[in-house]
Amino acid sequence: QVQLVESGGGWVQPGGSLTLSCAASENIFNFNAMGWYRQAPGKEREMVATINAGVITNYADFAKSRFTIFRADAANTLYLQMGSVKPEDMAVYYCNARLLSESYWGQGTQVTVSS
């Protein structure tokens, strides 16, 4: 069973930066794709950014030019670097990994944006 553990969430001021981490229990090079998703209160979970085995990235429109997704294969860790954070970025951020037909989720990490 693949385990994903997110960390790095917390409080950030508008305009600030934060980097989220997702540590996987196995070699992330094996995954077909990984990604970050978020869910704000009362809203559906939405894609933030994904990265596939070929290191091709895809971003939601709101994340383009502000967020960067990247992998550290040697550390089996996925990252999301968040910049120019806005109040509407406040949500629980989830890490996802896809392996063949299976999809795995972490427990989520809360990002709070407030001045």
Could you please describe the fold and organization of this structure?
The structure is a single chain. Helix content is 0%, strand content 53%. The chain contains no helices and eleven strands. β4 (33-39) and β5 form a beta hairpin. It is globular and about 40 Å long. The model has no long low-confidence stretch (mean pLDDT 96).
Keywords:
115 residues; mainly beta; 7-stranded mixed beta sheet; 4-stranded antiparallel beta sheet; 53% strand
Give a short summary of the structure.
By secondary structure, the chain is an all-beta fold.
Secondary-structure map with pairings?
Elements: E1 4-7, E2 10-12, E3 18-24, E4 33-39, E5 46-52, E6 57-59, E7 67-72, E8 77-82, E9 91-99, E10 102-105, E11 109-113
Parallel strand pairs: 2-11
Antiparallel strand pairs: 1-3, 3-8, 4-5, 4-9, 5-6, 7-8, 9-10, 9-11
Helicity range of the residues? Answer: under 10%
Q: What global shape is seen?
A: globular
Q: Would you list the SSEs in sequence order as H and E?
A: EEEEEEEEEEE
Distance between the termini: 40 Å
Strand count, sense and closure of the main sheet?
A: 7 strands, mixed
Rg over alpha carbons = 13 Å
Q: What is the average per-residue confidence, as pLDDT, rounded to a whole number?
A: 96
- Portion in beta strands: over 45%
Number of strands: 11
- Alpha plus pi helix count: 0
Please identify the structural class as seen in this structure: mainly beta
Low-confidence stretches: none
